[in-house]
């Protein structure tokens, strides 16, 4: 449970929990099942089915480094312990940030710690969201945008600025797509949600647009100064709820005025009420993936064999960028060369597999059929299922094949996943 265990009667299955700090109701959670535990260190460990534990403790071995980095930047961790519960494969989300324990998807268990930014994100919520909470879901960006900024700072501290910038660049790509396609209202940070579906608020606007707002403020004040400001913000509002107006007032009083920053009210309002990114947003460098662009050009235009290209040290973010930049109409020879050199169809990384499958499905190449069927029947995370089923539904030759798989797989999906996917796959 998202609290301290104070008494245990294992023989009768009776457990007593205690939470001394005030938390909003959405941060109360209880997990029931055949759950085991393995420690990572003295303040962190992994809960889950026994089969997950060894792999998960290796995957999350850096959690203490992330906590130390957050303590240094934003003040002492307020919750005592930070454990992680690996949920069954049917869990439809990436993670959920409860006090003392984060619930996480098993799709982050890649064997190479390449998706630990999700763990950094849930940890960052210990400050932004759990310690200082949005007053209601009109102000969701206060939870998710600030958290995404803190996540980026933690990733830079522990894994280097290059990786943090690469992850941001990919998220900004997704944000731009969201802003271009979102219905009116869903592209603002501060939204009234009158007559709208609040579930749709959990998109890249609250997360990445909110993060870019924080990044812009940090650029105006200086990164270190902004870290100090956020540490003070968390202390001033600890165990309280705030709304957008509270945040703006806090920025004016404790960031802009003491440092005599030349920020204008209308600039803040452009971030909060605008439907696009402000022209003065501080974006990732256009050279973030220049190496990948060069390699793609070499392969596609100069027909240099993939086996001669230097890709061994690529990060997952570089691979994702590579896959997203591949032509949508690859030849069978090109597909075979990609698969034989990189084995995308067998990738344990769900991000890479999904990008590859979305590329291959419209080409109707059988290379993806069996791996895709296995993935759809063993993974329940909506982030991957939605684009895969949507791509299959948009490929006429694959629709009946998709429906058969969905009818078999549906019972293993979470009801929230079923609600979304029924509209696509039935």
From TrEMBL:
The active site is at 122 (proton acceptor), 207 (proton donor). Zn(2+) binds at residues 121, 125, 144. GO terms for biological process: proteolysis. Binds 1 zinc ion per subunit. GO terms for molecular function: metallopeptidase activity; zinc ion binding. Belongs to the peptidase M1 family. InterPro entries: ARM-type_fold (IPR016024), M1_LTA-4_hydro/amino_C_sf (IPR038502), M1_LTA4H (IPR034015), Peptidase_M1 (IPR001930), Peptidase_M1_C (IPR015211), Peptidase_M1_dom (IPR014782), Peptidase_M4/M1_CTD_sf (IPR027268). Keywords: Cytoplasm, Hydrolase, Metal-binding, Metalloprotease, Protease, Zinc. Its cofactor is Zn(2+). This is Peptidase M1 leukotriene A4 hydrolase/aminopeptidase C-terminal domain-containing protein. GO terms for cellular component: cytoplasm. It comes from Danionella cerebrum. It is found in: Cytoplasm. Pfam families: Leuk-A4-hydro_C, Peptidase_M1. Its main location: cytoplasm. SUPFAM superfamilies: ARM repeat, Metalloproteases ('zincins'), catalytic domain. Residues 290-425 form the Peptidase M1 leukotriene A4 hydrolase/aminopeptidase C-terminal domain.
